[in-house]
Automatic annotation (TrEMBL), chain B:
Membrane topology: Multi-pass membrane protein
Family as reported in the entry's similarity comment: Belongs to the CPA3 antiporters (TC 2.A.63) subunit C family.
Gene, per the UniProt record: mrpC
Pfam families associated with the record: Oxidored_q2
Transmembrane regions: 6-21, 28-47, 67-91
Gene3D superfamilies membership: 1.10.287.3510
Name of this protein: Multiple resistance and pH homeostasis protein C
InterPro entries in UniProt: CPA3_antiporter_subunitC, NUOK/Mnh_C1-like
Predominant subcellular localization, coarse grouping: membrane
Subcellular localization(s) per the UniProt record: Cell membrane
GO cellular component: plasma membrane
Keywords annotated in UniProt: Cell membrane, Membrane, Transmembrane, Transmembrane helix
PANTHER family documented for this protein: ANTIPORTER SUBUNIT MNHC2-RELATED (PTHR34583)
Length: 973, 112
């Protein structure tokens, strides 16, 4: 026996490719090993998934040249990937770990990083070699009418995603590929999308595995948080730290949810039998060899980080044990061949999970060995089931009987594979099952119940023998076929070839495991354990010991169970039906209808409902914030004393607001009361040291009144029906909560200490911005970017009015609600005569306000509003027919001009190497006028001015024009 | 003065919210206007209340906080823009549905 060599490189373990197993001690690496690693192996590794992803549309593109070209394209892609993999295999088998890394989103810890170690190599080999066989098999299996391009393309996409899962070094990358396998398998299961069964099965598979993927994402994020990296290289060496962390339990549970859903572990197993609606090549590929193994792959991959804890033992081992026995028992009672195979797969996956849960080095080795063996025999069994289905037109074992006479070769192959599934000696399934039995017998930490595990294993073994016997006996013997849709026959040679190959492998591995899978198993187990391999020997005969006894018991017991099948089936028929699948469907429907009901409540198309919900949430969140807010720091401001004027103003304001609310049906009166409130607010700004605000509010008030009057002009005179009492109470409660809440918050805020950044603006206004009116300097200079955004929003309002009201005609009602005619004389002569000479005066005032705005109250906003009011007054006084032709006709151009002025002066600072909107100002001594101060921000302010004027005038004149058009229309008619 | 301002903000908010929850376009417009007053006063108050201290730089004076004032100034103008936009929508809806219900449904359907 030679000594196995182990050494560390990059924090990882590397084992020699020696076939003779022995535990060893770490020692220095042998230089020649690294010389053998190709220099560009990094590129080769990256090329494997890259090729797969780049080439997956090929079959779809080539299918126009016939289905053979699609199949050849798929096979070529797989062979190319296999070639790339094999070029890296020798080094990997020798223990080298290849890591390729390409930075993608390093800030989020997400890189395109791949690793190829023994575990990845094993899975890549399974994915690619069984994939090749499936491609060959599917070409004969799928009906000649199918063009196959779509099928092979999705199959290649799935393969690429699986390669990604097993090659990922970064866990988030792994998750992306993981979800991609769920998505592509959804498409594959739903291949016969015209069949209800396929759609249900595909949807269920996606819901369960996709949902598990979400749990896995959460688990991976937690794991990355604990380990400080998403790279496996880091995570796999941080096991101690991860297990000691407070978040270990949720991390483990979430990751296991992902693994268990994917590997169809109880109670998430039900999607796998439903997914049997997929074409058999898909079942052979996804549901025996690859996708369902992704879950156990993840267990093996993360074992060094998450394993070796009591929790791991109970969760993983417990789930595996339940799944193992439950699914084996269920498989016996399935009448559908694929249903039996599906439950058998679930049972075997449970066995692998249980082995990983047992948490000893040797049980991990046995689990990985069983992954290989199960993939080989189960893929061949699925393919044989497909042959039978293809030949007979049904898979019902109550009708498919006596096939041995019809197709002796296929029957022999299937019987050998079923023997492997049952654990018959000389076949590969026997070896890993013996290792499993041996593990349960020697399991050290389970003393009080030492007999329980071997007993459970033996029962599971018996059940496996029983369902395998049923498969063999029912399908190939047991009398004559019953009422078959088709006349069965041997399949074509090429359809059988993949099965032959796999069955030969079953035998080869079963007879001589050491030189067939030995090196691969060593490399994979070494990578999974990240520790020296235990001492073990793969052989057919270890002498007569407990595992052999258990095997014999299982064989005899299984045959006995099958002999007793009739009373058993009768007994099973009386059992209350267990339909996890139907429960899931029910749950799914309830979820969907619940979602529909929720949407119907919150999204019923009523603005009132939306507003009520919105205000309700604002009250809730505001209340929560109010009661949980921390106290501020800073200077507590002095309270301002109240006086008679203030009290009077408050009374007027309350009167206006409450009056408008109470009398909102009297629309004109309500409007007047609202404007009283507006004026009081203006006066409040005057009193409380905000002259700019007062000017702006005053001008806006005028615009608002004109706007509202115009709206009133068109609205139907009829009074709205009264709200119901319930609605009124709801609205009053919401209004009182919102108002009371905001009043409380205001009071609290005003009493709280103040900590303001105002000092900066006050200090810098004159030296930095060149203006004494700090508010204006903030608007056009310090926070000019905000203002630019705001005038852009305003410009959009004008554009909206232009487009929404374009070519719209509304005829204003002729009578009021009581049937009285509106006054006919539109434009009082006195008003019109007064307004015309007033225009230049008003414009002069606005120019004055504009120019002085940088130092005293005024500026672009105020001046723009005053100018627009002056222009709108011309409309009011002289009528739209007089005013419209005298106005600029291209409001859109004016808007653009204003925005360009503001943005252009901002850009103008770029040539000087300054950031956007840097201001400049200086003094220019001019003759006659004296010292004139010029600042670049005046151009900006001019842009603001132009936009404001255009917006107000455009909106109001567009509204006014509606009736003009209507009148023209009436006149024309 | 602080308590009075808080009362004003609260009452304006309550009236505004109540009117916004009405089913006809015009009260909603009025409610929005009232709510804008309330929000503007609230934002303004975040700079605390000061009498006789406008933020105009001159020798030896006290200044009110200019930043909330600048924010409120644009908020007033934007508020006008929003009211105008809603008015346009209301009229467009009137032209399309022939009524002034906020959901553009006919009065018969909307009668509660």
């Amino acid at each position: 026996m030679t000594v196995r060599l182990w050494w560390i490189r990059d924090g990882g373990l590397i084992g020699s490719g020696n076939n003779h197993r022995a535990s060893g001690t770490p020692c220095e690496p042998a230089p020649p090993l690294f010389a053998k690693v190709p220099v560009n192996s990094n590129l080769l590794l990256a090329a494997i998934p890259a090729t797969a992803f780049a080439a997956f549309p090929l079959p779809l593109l080539l299918q126009r040249y016939g289905r053979a070209s699609a199949a050849v394209a798929a096979a070529t892609v797989m062979a190319a990937c296999l070639g790339l993999l094999l070029s890296l295999a020798p080094a990997t088998l020798a223990g080298h770990r290849e890591v390729a890394r390409l930075a993608w989103l390093p800030a989020y810890g997400l890189d395109l990083s791949l690793r190829l170690d023994g575990l990845g190599l094993l899975f890549c080999l399974l994915i690619l070699s069984i994939g090749l066989l499936v491609v060959l098999y599917a070409a004969w299996y799928l009906p000649a009418s199918d063009r196959l391009g779509r099928f092979y393309s999705i199959l290649l996409l799935f393969m690429a995603a699986m390669l990604g899962v097993v090659l990922a070094e970064n866990l988030i990358l792994l998750l992306i590929f993981w979800e991609l396998t769920s998505l592509s398998s959804f498409l594959l299961v739903a291949y016969r999308s015209d069949k209800h069964e396929s759609r249900i099965g595909a949807r269920m598979a996606l819901a369960v595995t996709g949902g598990g993927g979400l749990a896995l994402l959460a688990g991976i994020l937690l794991l990355g948080h604990i380990a400080g990296s998403y790279e496996l290289t880091v995570i796999l060496t941080a096991g101690e730290r991860i297990r000691a962390h407070a978040l270990y339990a949720p991390t483990l549970i979430l990751i296991l949810l992902g693994a268990f859903t994917k590997s169809a572990q109880f109670p998430f197993h039900f999607w796998l039998p439903s997914a049997m609606a997929a074409p058999t090549p898909v079942s052979a590929y996804l549901h025996s060899a690859t996708m369902v193994k992704a879950g156990v792959f993840l267990l093996a991959r993360l074992y060094p980080a998450l394993g070796s804890s009591e929790m791991w033992f109970w969760l993983v081992g417990g789930t595996g044990a339940i799944t193992l026995v439950y699914a084996a028992a269920t498989a016996l009672f399935r009448n559908d061949i694929k249903g039996l195979l599906a439950y058998s797969t679930i049972s075997h996956l449970g066995l692998i999970t249980l082995l990983f849960g047992l948490d000893t080095p040797l049980s991990i080795v046995a689990g990985i060995f069983h992954i290989i063996n199960h993939a080989i025999f189960k893929a061949s069994l699925f393919m044989a089931a497909g042959v039978i289905d293809h030949a007979c037109g049904t898979r019902d074992m109550r009708r498919v009987n006596g096939m041995f006479r019809v197709m002796p070769i296929t029957a022999t192959l299937a019987i050998i594979a079923a023997g492997s599934m049952a654990g018959v000696p000389l076949l590969n399934g026997f070896l890993s099952k013996e290792m499993f039995f041996a593990e349960t017998v020697s399991y050290p930490q389970f003393e009080p119940l030492g007999w329980a595990l071997p007993l459970l294993a033996t029962i599971a073994g018996m059940l496996a023998v029983a369902y395998s016997s049923r498969f063999v006996h029912d399908v190939f013997f047991n009398g004559q076929p019953v009422d078959l849709p088709r006349q069965p026959h041997e399949p074509s040679r090429w359809m059988r070839a993949p099965i032959e190959l796999l069955v030969v492998l079953c035998l080869l591995v079963g007879v001589s495991p050491d030189w067939t899978v030995g090196p691969l198993l060593d490399a994979a187990a070494g990578a999974a354990l990240q520790a020296p391999l235990p001492d073990f020997h793969l052989a057919l005969w270890h002498g007569f010991n407990q595992p052999v006894l258990m095997s014999l018991l299982a064989l005899a017991g299984g045959v006995l169970i099958y002999a007793l099948r009739r009373p058993l089936f009768a007994w099973q028929d009386q059992l209350p039906p267990m339909h996890p699948r139907t429960s899931f469907e029910r749950f799914y429907r309830a979820l969907a209808s619940g979602a529909r009901r929720t949407v119907a409540v919150v999204d019923n198309g009523s603005l009132q409902r939306y507003s009520a919900l919105l205000f309700g949430f604002v009250v809730l969140l505001g209340g929560w914030a109010f009661f949980s807010a921390p106290g501020g720091t800073g200077v507590r401001p002095a309270a301002q004393p109240a006086d008679e004027v203030a009290v009077a103003a408050l009374l007027v304001l309350l009167l206006g607001a409450l009056g408008a609310t109470a009398l909102y049906r009297e629309r004109l009166l309500a409007l007047i009361l609202v404007s009283v409130v507006g004026l009081t607010v203006t006066l409040t700004f005057v009193r409380l040291s905000a002259p700019d605000l007062a000017l702006t509010q005053l001008a806006v008030e005028m615009g608002t009144i004109v706007l509202m009057l115009l709206v009133l002009h068109y609205l139907p005179p009829r009074n709205a029906p009264k709200s119901s009492a319930r609605r009124l109470i709801r609205d009053l409660v919401l209004a009182l909560l919102a108002g009371g809440g905001l009043a409380l918050i205001t009071l609290q805020m005003l009493a709280a200490p103040v900590d303001t950044i105002a000092g900066f603006y006050l200090q810098q206004s004159l030296p930095g911005g060149g203006g004494a009116n700090v508010v204006n300097v903030i608007l056009v200079d310090f926070r000019g970017f905000d203002t630019l955004g705001e005038i852009t929003v305003l410009a959009m309002v004008a554009l909206a009015s232009h487009t929404l009201l374009d070519r719209l005609t509304l005829s204003a009602p002729q009578h009021d609600a009581d049937g009285r005619r509106w006054a006919a004389e539109a434009h009082p002569l006195f008003l019109s005569m007064l307004m015309r000479p007033l225009l230049p005066l008003a414009l002069t005032v606005s120019v004055y306000l504009f120019l002085r705005g940088h130092h005293v109250p005024g500026g672009g906003f105020v001046a723009g509003l005053i100018t627009s009011i002056a222009l709108v007054m011309q409309y009011l006084a002289n009528g739209i027919a007089f005013a419209q032709p005298r106005m600029p006709q291209q409001p859109v151009r004016l808007l653009a001009l204003g925005l360009l002025l503001a943005a252009g002066i901002g850009v103008a600072s770029w040539p000087f190497g300054r950031p956007f909107l840097t201001s400049a100002h200086g003094h220019l001594p001019l003759p006659l006028l004296g010292d004139v101060e010029l600042a670049s921000v005046m151009v900006f302010d001019l842009g603001v001015y132009v936009v404001v004027v255009t917006v107000v005038v455009t909106v109001l004149s567009e509204l006014g024009r509606l009736s003009l058009r209507a009148r023209d229309g009436e006149a024309a008619a | 003065m602080e308590a009075m301002l808080a009362i004003a903000v609260g009452v304006l908010t309550a009236c505004g919210v109540f009117l916004i929850l009405r089913a006809r376009t015009f009260p909603v417009l009025l409610g929005l206007t009232l709510l804008s007053y309330a929000v503007n006063l609230f934002l303004f108050a975040s700079g605390r209340l000061q009498v006789g201290a406008p933020p105009l730089i001159r020798a030896g004076a006290a200044y009110a906080d200019p930043l909330p004032q600048a924010l409120v100034l644009t908020a007033i103008v934007i508020g006008f823009g929003m009211t105008a936009y809603l008015a346009i929508l209301a009229l467009r809806s009137l032209a399309e549905s022939g009524g002034d219900h906020v959901d553009a449904v006919s009065t018969e359907d909307a009668r509660q």
